[in-house]
Automatic annotation (TrEMBL):
Residues 15-353 form the Enoyl reductase (ER) domain. This is Alcohol dehydrogenase catalytic domain-containing protein. GO terms for molecular function: oxidoreductase activity; zinc ion binding. InterPro entries: ADH-like_C, ADH-like_N, ADH_Zn_CS, ER, GroES-like_sf, NAD(P)-bd_dom_sf. The lineage of its organism: Bacteria, Bacillati, Actinomycetota, Actinomycetes, Propionibacteriales. It comes from the Bacteria. It comes from Nocardioides luti.
Amino acid sequence: MTQTMKAFVLHEGRGRFEERPLPKAGPTDVIVRATAVSACSAELACLSGEFPAAEGTVLGHEGVGVVHEVGSLVTEFEVGQRVTTASTTPCGICANCQRGFSGHCRQAVWGGYTFGVSRDGTFAEYFTVPQAGYNVVSIPDKVSDAAALCITDTIASGSTGVEAAQPPLGSVIVVFGQGHIGLGATATARAVGAALVITVKSRPGGEHIAKALGADFSFNLADHDVQAEIRDLTGGLGADVVIEATGARASFPMAVEATREGGVLAVLSAYDGPADAALEIPLAHWGWGIGDKTILSTFQRCGSERMGRLLRLVETGRIDPTPLLTRTYGFGDLPRALADLKARPTGHIKPLITFEPASFQDEFETTQGVEL
C-alpha cells in the first residue's frame, strides 16, 4: 500500500496539491479515508488571510469517509466503518467543554474549530479526527455520504441556533440569511415543530432551495417590505424565534424588530468589523428595555452524541439536506469548486466533492479568472 496521499495545502495565499505522508493515528485518533468533502466561505477566508490558518496546513473542515486506522485507546470504531465528524472537533475535556460550550474549547478564539486552520483538515485522501470517542460518529446505512456531509457543518451549525432558542410547538420561526448556515437553520426549524418557517435574504434567487428545505415563505430585501410581510403573517405579533445568520451587522436590528415580545433571537453570525464596532438595538424594537426579548449568541454544538441525533433526523426522513449540494466535482477539480464558491452564482450553495479518479492541478492562483 502506498504511504503517501494527495492533499490540498495552503502556501502563501494559494492552495496547491501536494504529496503528503499518510497520517498516523495517535492513541485517541481515528484516520479516515475520505469519500467526500465539501467547502464554504471558511476556506476562502483561509486563502485570503482573513482566517489565521497556519502556513502549510491542509485545508478543509467538512468530510465523510471510511475508518482506515484507529488509535490504541479507541474502542468505539473499527477499520472499514463509515463515519463522519462535526467541523468543530473539541477536546471534550477542558472546562468549557465540560460546561457544555465545546465550541469554545480551551478558550481559544475559534475554540474547537481547528480543521484546516491550526491543524490539517479534510482536503486530503486521508484525514485525522482527534479525540475520536468524543468527535467521530458512525453513519447509518440509510444515510448517503452526501447527506451525512451536509450534517458536518451546515446542519450542525444551523440547527444550533434553533435548538438553543427552544421554540415552542407550533411556533413561527424567521431565518435571516440563506447562505448554507441559514439554510441549515431552515431545514431544522420544521423538524423541531415550527408551524410557520419564513426566510429572509438580501437578494432574489434560490428560493426553491429554501422551500425544498422547509420554508413556507421566502422573502428578499430587494423585492419585499420584510417587516410588513412578517407582521401580516403573524397577526402583527412577530416571530417566536428569529435566527440571525447573515453575517451582516446591518441585519441585526432587523432581526430584533422581527422578534415578538417574549421571543428569542439566536445569533449564528460571526460579524466582521473593528474590535470597537457595535450592533445596534433600536429602543422601540427592544421594547424600551422591557420587551422580554432574549438574545443568544451561539457557536456550533458538536460531539458524537449530537451528531448521531442529527443523522437520525436524516435516517428517519425528518429532513433531507441534499438540496444544499448544488454542484458536484472530483477532488482534482477542487480549485474550480473554490472558484465557483467565490463567484457566488445565483442558486449555488455548496459543492459535493468526491474522490473518484481524477487529474490534479499541482498549484493554482486563479481558476476561471477568479483569484483565490
